[in-house]
């Protein structure tokens, strides 16, 4: 971000100016300087710990400041953290200003709403239930300000269209910030209790533990995604004709799973299964995968080993769960004529029946060396024709319903062969997509 667009610099300068204006009434507000200093130091310490160890932003102390301090004083709580914490990316000064001004405006807005609704008078053990409504409104105001600022800087710095810049920002932030807000309110109530600030600090301990667990989950998930990406990239490099095929099969598998009403965990497993269904091609000689002419029976038998190769490769990846069975059995057919084991009917795992339909659909709607892409309607008609023999009718019906409702918008399309030569017309190549 060396060359920051002028309008992004203008956006940061405008937000910084607004933050300064919010702080100007500080002297007239007569804040408790000891409370302000303690909250600012505590927020800086929490931010240092969270950014260094876990990643992300820790809002409970900031929101406690909105509940305890006048708006002008609350706006100063995040400033020391922004000035003291290291900034890795350039331009450093611009980023420091943004990190100070953005939360200052958000917490000022939250404090203003909290004061307007009488929340400061309700913060205390006897009046605690009455503090919930003002605190909730303050948290909503906090999220709204962050949404406006984040969408604005995204549109200004990254040239994202305005309609996309703000899409989903508020809905994604509401739940986590609401949890932080509840912790901040608990801190404020204990702070005003006879036990004082020391008791308020105890709220941070369970919050810190839960944040650590949450961060570990996301790190583990990121590691899973990296593992899958590496395997898919290896397949795509080896078999250029199917580049993008894995992601599209994963997408089609998700459409089917959601249409069948599967829960989110199973949908995610089906996505993994679709993405990795052809990982066994890494064990197939490249010359066979890229061969333009007809395959000999021996060559076809070698290619038909790829489900078993794939299953062996992912056997030890525990997070894949039943996706491993889909990788092994996605070429089985309902009438028992598939491979590698000739399973029939319900003996074929459900996840494999989902991926089989998704795989066949994308194979028919993608241009390859031996066939040109069919229209979506023609591909669905072919799936329906083969339902009950090759494919599970439930999966075919689910995909057809999902496509009628939302259409088919694959992210990657292989329209040309690796050499830029248009693919052959259907019937001119003799390889069958079934083995692929």
From TrEMBL:
Keywords: Hydrolase, Membrane, Transmembrane, Transmembrane helix. The keyword Isomerase does not apply. SUPFAM superfamilies: HD-domain/PDEase-like (SSF109604). Pfam families: HD_5 (PF13487). The chain crosses the membrane at residues 58-85, 137-157, 169-191, 197-215. One of its GO terms (molecular function) is hydrolase activity. Residues 425-436 have a biased composition (Polar residues). Residues 410-436 are annotated as: Disordered. Residues 242-364 form the HD domain. Residues 220-415 form the HD-GYP domain. This is Metal-dependent phosphohydrolase. It comes from Streptomyces bungoensis.
């Amino acid at each position: 971000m060396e060359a920051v667009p002028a309008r992004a610099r203008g956006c940061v300068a405008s937000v910084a100016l607004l933050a300064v204006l919010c702080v100007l009434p500080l002297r007239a507000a007569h804040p408790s300087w000891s409370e302000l200093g303690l909250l600012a130091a505590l927020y800086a310490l929490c931010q240092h710990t969270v950014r260094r160890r876990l990643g992300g932003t820790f809002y409970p102390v900031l929101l406690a400041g909105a509940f305890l301090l006048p708006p002008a004083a609350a706006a100063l709580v995040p400033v020391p953290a922004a000035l003291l914490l290291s900034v890795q990316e350039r331009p450093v000064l611009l980023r420091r200003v943004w990190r100070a001004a953005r939360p200052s405006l958000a917490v000022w807005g939250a404090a203003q709403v909290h004061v307007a609704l009488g929340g400061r008078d309700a913060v205390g053990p006897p009046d605690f239930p009455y503090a919930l409504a003002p605190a909730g409104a303050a948290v909503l105001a906090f999220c709204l300000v962050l949404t406006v600022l984040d969408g604005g800087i995204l549109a200004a710095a990254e040239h994202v269209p305005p309609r996309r810049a703000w899409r989903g920002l508020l809905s994604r932030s509401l739940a986590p910030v609401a949890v932080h807000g509840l912790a901040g309110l608990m801190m404020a109530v204990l702070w005003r209790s006879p036990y004082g600030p020391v008791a308020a600090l105890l709220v941070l301990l369970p919050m810190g533990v839960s944040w650590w667990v949450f961060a570990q989950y996301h790190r583990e998930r990121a590691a899973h995604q990296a593992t899958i990406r590496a395997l898919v990239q290896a397949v795509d490099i080896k078999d250029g004709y199917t580049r993008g095929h894995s992601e599209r099969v994963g997408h089609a598998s998700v459409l089917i799973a959601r249409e069948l009403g599967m829960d989110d965990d199973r949908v995610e497993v089906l996505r993994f299964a679709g993405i990795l269904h052809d990982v066994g091609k890494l064990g197939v000689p490249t010359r066979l995968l890229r061969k333009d002419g007809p395959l000999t029976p021996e060559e076809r038998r070698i290619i038909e080993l790829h489900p078993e190769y794939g299953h062996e490769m992912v056997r030890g990846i525990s997070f894949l769960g039943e996706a491993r069975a889909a990788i092994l059995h996605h070429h089985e057919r309902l009438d028992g004529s598939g491979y590698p084991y000739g399973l029939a009917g319900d003996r074929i795992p459900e996840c494999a029946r989902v991926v089989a339909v998704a795989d066949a659909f994308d194979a028919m709607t993608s241009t390859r060396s031996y066939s040109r892409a069919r229209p979506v309607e023609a591909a669905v008609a072919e799936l329906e024709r083969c339902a009950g023999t090759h494919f599970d009718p439930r999966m075919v019906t689910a995909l057809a319903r999902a496509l009628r409702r939302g259409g088919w918008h694959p992210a990657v399309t292989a329209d040309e062969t690796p050499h830029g030569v248009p693919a052959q017309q259907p019937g001119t190549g003799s390889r069958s997509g079934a083995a692929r």
